[in-house]
Design goal:
alpha/beta; Nucleotidyltransferase, domain 5; 6-stranded mixed beta sheet; 5-stranded mixed beta sheet; 13 helices; 13 strands; about 20% strand
């Protein structure tokens, strides 16, 4: 299949992201003009069917998984990815030949950059880029994390390099906070100094799971249930005693560490469900604030909040209280809706791969040096 090229026309990529919330797949069409920052051109989201969500969760948390179980979950996930890509192409009246590549993150199953019980470091994303290329007719770039891991890095977070491309200012200190299933921060010093960044801990992964257990709905809209509860100081202290929160960067985490059984181990049994929700919101805000203060002490800065948590008014108020030196903003001011940074990042990573440009940040992941990330699968 031949791609269509026009002189001075921007290159088009589609970025795919399915986060730890497992609520669906985001597809972002991103245009890359030759002389400007990437532009979000169009978006499409597909909801994850409950059966597929349960199959993926089962794979994430199972002690033993059969190859057939893995294959079935991977095929369902790949079909949903293809649905998202093909719907976006139809919506924009584009053909596969108009797209230089699809950047696929895959679905993280387990992330263990320190290894497990003395074993080798690993990070596993369920994905089938060969199948996705067949189903969409597009070139696919995938498996972005393991090259950084091979170079001694954490393989996460990867979005800070994209944050740098979009948001770094010559004069203003900025921090990008992504509030997805987990929270991560990117410190962008003024000028062209290298960014720093790391995962700060759980965000929506625990808030959503606890809400779903005790209330109707998928998430605590605007954080209203949490806002109506009282923080349990003793529970918060127990949660914050988790060693991860005191580990110096580079660091990254995922569902293998923070999940409902982890929370339940810290409960006394006397807490009200609403107090636990309030305490989880405070845990997210406190761990983010702790991470930000590690990066830049008391300097004034702009805090750019992205991800689903950007819509959580209660959580944002907690952050404003804990970080009074911050001016809160969202990526919308730069033409990027808060929900689309992560998918946009994987379009950007695919663009870097096809241009043989490094896209990890050793200052963030701890890798031995810059590396070109991802493998390419022809249509």
């Amino acid at each position: 299949m031949h791609e269509r090229h026009h002189d001075n026309a921007p290159e088009r990529y589609i970025g795919l992201m399915s986060g730890t919330s497992l609520d669906g797949i985001d597809a972002a069409l991103v245009e890359f003009p030759s002389d400007a920052v990437p532009r979000l051109a169009a978006t499409h989201a597909v909801t994850m069917p409950q059966a597929l969500r349960e199959a993926l969760l089962a794979v994430c948390h199972a002690e033993k998984v059969s190859f057939a179980q893995l294959a079935a979950a991977e095929e369902g996930f790949c079909q949903l990815q293809a649905d998202a890509v093909n719907a976006l192409l139809r919506q924009q009246a584009l053909s596969p030949s108009d797209i230089r590549a699809v950047g696929s993150h895959g679905q993280t199953i387990e992330h263990a950059p320190q290894g497990h019980n003395g074993g080798p470091a690993y990070t596993l994303q369920l994905d089938n880029p060969s199948r996705l290329a067949e189903l969409t007719g597009c070139r696919v770039v995938a498996d972005f994390r393991r090259r950084d891991l091979a170079a001694g890095g954490q393989a996460a977070p990867l979005a800070p390099a994209f944050h740098q491309a979009l948001f770094q200012s010559p004069t203003e200190a900025r921090v990008v906070l992504n509030l997805g299933g987990f929270a991560n921060v990117t410190w962008l010093p003024p000028g062209d100094a290298p960014p720093l960044g790391f995962d700060t801990g759980p965000a929506n992964v625990l808030l959503d799971a606890w809400f779903q257990r005790h209330q109707k709905g998928a998430f605590d809209r605007d954080g209203k249930w949490a806002a109506g509860g009282n923080v349990d100081a003793a529970l918060l202290a127990r949660l914050l005693s988790e060693p991860f929160f005191h580990q110096p960067p580079p660091r990254s985490t995922g569902r293998e560490r923070f999940h409902l059984p982890w929370l339940e181990r810290h409960l006394s049994g006397q807490e009200s469900p609403q107090a636990v929700q309030a305490t989880l919101a405070e845990l997210t805000a406190k761990s983010v604030a702790q991470g930000v203060k590690h990066l830049l002490k008391e300097k004034a800065f702009t805090l750019i909040i992205a991800g689903g948590g950007a819509h959580n008014g209660d959580l944002c108020q907690r952050l404003a209280r804990l970080l009074p030196q911050a001016t809160l903003s969202t990526p919308d001011a730069w033409g990027w809706p808060a929900d689309w940074i992560e998918a946009g990042a994987f379009a950007w990573l695919a663009h870097r791969r096809l241009h043989y440009l490094p896209s990890n940040l050793p200052s963030v992941t701890g890798a031995a040096g810059p590396r070109v990330l991802g493998g390419v699968y022809a249509p």
